[in-house]
Amino acid sequence: MGKELARTYLRRGDTVVIVGRDKDKALPGARLIAADLSLVSENWRVIDEINAAYPAVDALVLCARYFRSTRFVTAEGFEATFALEYLSRYLLSHGLTDPGVIINVSGPGVPMGRVHWDDLMLARGYDGVAAQMQAGRANDLLGTAFAAERPSAVTRYVLINPGPVSTAFRGEYDAATAAHVESLKRYGAPVTEGVKPVIARVDDPPAAPLSAFMQSKPISLDHPSFSSDAAARLSDVTRHLLRSLEG
To answer: 190: which of 4, 105, 121, 157 lies 20 to 30 Å off by Cα?
Structure first.
């Protein structure tokens, strides 16, 4: 989806920066910043590089994802899904200088999943789907906390669930999960259709500091997924985790 979004805005003549680990993400006309976003240190480097090169960022789209059937811990000590799909989005959201809109492509509106407060790194009984679902719920709370902590900011924060889309679904899968992924690829919407709700929100961001959508349908924020208390708690925990790497 990220590559299709980049193509769309390159065709319009916009400046596009792609951040990713793989060189095959490069597109003619776009700037590629090679980085492993599962590492906090790499996110800090990317933030510094973008802020130095671009005084204004109209839109930040967060959609990095990588499925792991087996638990993996990064060199910095974080469970990899939590690091890539939540910590990176937290860092980029707060680190770039006042983007006009942040589009966090995650899982609002899905009743499954929870934040494992007593085991955020899923050291006990890891499950790849549970890790993905936790990241989705954490991103709901990220958007909630971002809007609450920065009420006067110019940035609008938008959470979008694109629904089933036939993307590459990069990852390391066990047999059962791989079969499910193949089904999603067969029956999911084409990527060119799946990105349309994202493009719509980039082109015409909602006026509210925080909004959430299931594809193009607005989702009510009056739901436990967007609990202000839980959002503040996760924000505090996140800052504590990041401080452990400083100094």
So the answer is: 157
Domain count, the chain: 1
Please check whether residue 136 lies inside any domain of the structure. Answer: yes
Angle at 30 between CA 27 and CA 36, to 5 degrees: 80
Q: In which domain, by residue range, is 142 found?
A: 57-243
Strand segments, DSSP code E, in 98-190 are 101-105, 156-161, 171-172
- The pTM (predicted TM-score) of the whole model is 0.95
pLDDT tens-digit readout, 196-225: 999 999 999 999 999 999 999 999 999 999
Rounded Cα distance between 48 and 213, Å, is: 30
> What is the separation of C-alpha 89 from the centre of its chain, rounded to a whole number of angstroms?
5
**CA 104 to chain CA centroid, nearest Å:** 5
Separation of alpha carbons 150 and 95, rounded Å: 13
Q: CA–CA separation, 110 vs 122, rounded Å?
A: 20
